[in-house]
Design goal:
Layout lengths: L12 H20 L10 E6 L5 H12 L3 E6 H4 L7 H11 L2 E5 L3 H10 L4 E5 L5 H13 L8 E5 L4 H9 L6 E5 L8 H10 L3 E5 L2 H5 L4 E4 L11 H8 L6 H6 L5 E4 L11 H4 L6 H26 L5 H16 L1
Parallel strand pairs: 1-2, 1-3, 3-4, 5-6, 5-8, 6-7, 8-9
Helix pairs in contact: 1-13, 2-13, 4-5, 6-7, 6-13
Amino acid sequence: MKRDLLSFADLTRADVDRLFAVAARLKADRRSGKHHRELDQRSLALIFHKPSLRTRLSFEVAMTQLGGSSVFITEREIGMGSRESTSDVARVLSGYVDGIMIRTFAHDLAVDLARHASVPVINGLTDWLHPCQILADLFTLREHRVDLDRAIVAYIGDGNNVANSWIEAARLFGLEARIACPEGYDPDPELVAKVSRSGPGRVRIVRSPMEAAKGADVLYTDVWASMGQEAEREKRLPIFRTFQINRSLLREAKPRAFVMHCLPAHRGEEITEDVFEGPQSIVFPQAENRMHLQKAILFDLLAGRAKSRPARTASKARASKRSARTRRSR
């Protein structure tokens, strides 16, 4: 039975721990020069309705390093929902590729694609959630010896898809997600309520960045106006001006707190240059780990499918070679 990764709801704690272990092993193997070919002859469709640097490159390189290949597809080429129905696109792609990654606006589109596809579908980003990003961030924090069941993560800024996925993380980990955002820019209230009822972690929505940062293990931020919100940028700037990670805010956190940003960054807006480039910043290790964690996701979702497909045995291959030599000698 195929599995999708659209949100943290598709994962158990055991699933995530396994992904972290696989990511750590694949990362270490890569650095030691060991190569993997588990996804040889496997293909991943990459559907992009939003521009990307990290999502596209990390998935493409991940597939290459596992011996597979990827196909980049834009909305102009598909016209999903207009030129061709989502269900038809899903069924056609399922006959061509072994998995689909989609980076889009409406989360329902990713859900609909997964519903009709017979191959795994991965959420590379929607306006509601960004699970691959936060999985990589959690993996990065574990690498830096942060206890994910005790950590306080202070997210400062817009209650967007990244904030929502941090809230989802509290469903599996005992961390405290403190979301500091201006009134009217809160994360999904239904998601907050659901995770607060069912998760081992805790979620707090506050209006003061100082309150969120006090004693935090991690300070995290994102741009104040995400893709699709560019028209709101001038309106948002004065509203979010005090929701900035700077030295004053960093002093409120624990002395060895880490600073994270999912990128791209607008230095001087949501984060100051000195903090972004400072010794407590792990922004670029965080960005690199997108690839390693996504390799683990692809390995987990696609390698089993590769094994389940019929393969030529060594004896069949030898028989085929003998037959070819016989034909040539006639």
